[in-house]
Structure formats: structure tokens, C-alpha cells
Amino acid sequence: MAEVANGTADGPPDEGGLLPVGQKPASWTTWEADYWMSPELFDGTATRAPGQPFPLTEEWQWEYDYHDHALHSSLLHQTYQHGSVLLGSDRPGEFWALVVSGPQRGRVWWLRDGCAAPYADSSSARPEGDFLCWVRDWYAGRGWWRVEPTTPATR
């Protein structure tokens, strides 16, 4: 990150571009998740813990398999607070995070309402999802998260 920029307004995210290290997107403290599914509400004002390991190694869609609050609540909170620095947001409730601690270190993850998933470069078969791949796609406004233009239907 330090080689690219410590924050820049360039690129497509709606909430201020690439964030400086340690900052949170404007919506981080105010978004209301439809699929949070934890008895403990999300606390966007809580101090993040980037030194603690990021808990996931593969995509997790808790909106589908979140059935035991005692089992999943801690993991859900750790996914949003541990082992990463926030890069930016495409819209409220959708956050990009660079994992800085744990087995996924160096990968970019997409945290959104009901799901967390590693970024995969759509222009190749490489599943690495590292910061350099992500920032190139982000800056150019392309990537798997972008809606592709559709051709109007013919009658």
C-alpha cells in the first residue's frame, strides 16, 4: 500500500477513494446490515485489531449458514475487526479490506452484507486476489464487482 499511495481520491469507490491507512469509510460507523445476524450489534466505532489474525480462509455467506449465534457471532465480529486494514467502500455496507495478519495476509477481501469473499482477478484464472491485482482493477474501474454494461434487448 505504501508504494501506491497512503490514500487517494482516484479510482471508483464512492466514499472517498483509497483510504489512508487506519481510516474507516464514512459509512463504516452508520451502516445497518440486513444480514448481520448476531445478537451483538455491529459497532463501527470500536477499535479495530489489525494485529489479530484475520479469521477466514475462504468465502463465507453467513446469511445462508448462520444458524448458531454462540458459534458464529464471534467469528462474524472478528471478520470485520481483526487482521485487516480498510481500503475503501463501493457503497454503504460493501467494504474492501487488505488482510495484514493471518494466513490470508496480502489478499484483498470484500466484506458486504451477508458475505465475506476474497477478491479474485477477473481478467485471469489467478485466484490470488493480492493488493496489486485489486488496486489495478480498482483504479481502472474494472473487476468482478463491477456491473457490466448490458445490451438492450431486441424485439
Shape: globular
- The proportion of residues forming helix, as a percent range, comes to 10-25%
Which structural category do the helix and sheet elements fall into? alpha+beta
What is the mean pLDDT? 79
**Count of helix runs:** 3
Strand content: 5-15%
What is the quaternary state of this protein? single chain
Cα-atom Rg, whole angstroms? 16 Å
Largest sheet: 4 strands, antiparallel
How are the strands of the biggest sheet laid out side by side? 1-2-3-4
- Would you list the SSEs in sequence order as H and E? HHEEEEH
* Cα-to-Cα separation, first versus last residue: 49 Å
What is the total tally of β strands? Answer: 4
Low-confidence residue ranges: 146-155
Descriptive notes:
It is a single chain. With 155 residues, the chain is an alpha+beta fold. It has three helices and four strands, in the order ααββββα.
Features:
alpha+beta, globular, 155 residues, 15% strand, 4-stranded antiparallel sheet
